[in-house]
Amino acid sequence: MCTRIISIDVGIKNLAFCLFEKHANSTYFSIAKWDIINLSQEDEIQKCQCTEKNGVICNKPAKYTLNDNFFCLKHSKKQEYQIPTSELKTTFINKQKFQKLIDIADKYNIQYEKPIKKNDLLFKINEHISNKCFKEIKVTNASQIDLITIGKNIKNKFNKIFPVEDKIDYVLIENQISPIANRMKTIQGMIAQYFIMNNNTEHIEFVSSINKLKQSSGKTIEEQPSQQPQDKASNDYKSRKKQGILKCLEILTTEHSFTNQLSYFNIHKKKDDLSDSFLQGLWFIKNKHL
Hints:
- It is a single chain.
- Helices cover 38% and strands 16% of the residues.
- The protein is an alpha/beta fold.
- It folds into 2 domains: 2-41 and 142-287, 2-Layer Sandwich (Nucleotidyltransferase, domain 5); 80-136.
- Strands 3-2-1-7-8 form a 5-stranded mixed sheet. A 3-stranded antiparallel sheet has the order 5-4-6.
- Strand 1 and strand 2 form a beta hairpin.
- Helix 3 runs parallel beside helix 4, helix 5 (147-161) crosses helix 6 (182-196) and helix 7 (230-254) packs across helix 9 (271-287).
- The longest helix is centred in the C-terminal third of the chain and has 25 residues, at 230-254.
- It starts with a strand and ends with a helix.
- Mean pLDDT is 88; it is low at 217-226.
């Protein structure tokens, strides 16, 4: 028998989750899965597969692609292919006059025979773009993703990560309280509905975001939707995020049931969101004496 708790920090591009498990023969919870999910796209973000000097795979988010290979900005500059400028885009090229096309061809050393007709030069330049230039990987703006797409991605990605046959005892979802968080509130409900329709889910709870900060010794920074000046609100938000990361590091370093996650946490790019999901779950475990 195993007790499972999923703690979720709501987001679109950076939804963080931490899956805690405690087996019947153990007195401690451990982390079974801990990661970030991007709900803005069906496929996972491609990573740069170039090798660093120390032999480690780069693994940074790819910015460019060509021939099914993916490159971050740094490693793309070390390849023989060109990074596409605004001039080296088909949509731009096809609108230019003949003399401008000649200037572009000469600038980028695109070979052509003289004299040449405009359509032939267009073909030469577009061929160069297709064969010699990276394709830029477009980043989708989270605010432009419709809720239907997000809902489908919740279903498909959660199905892969949380098998239906694995019983979930508690699902904890960060409660969205900001007056400007209507969209996030909807996503909170969609996540809850996913687990409601999963017959292996026992309890679902919306958890106040201030609870995760109660893991810190002493003071808790209050988190509320007040009409405070934007600069102060931004500073408070950054302070909470920093406090969460530091507390998470402290726990991962000192509590033996979590020390195996320290190296993973240290190299992760989204420590703040991982911390939020972890501390929220840990608060619940201690508050409920599980």
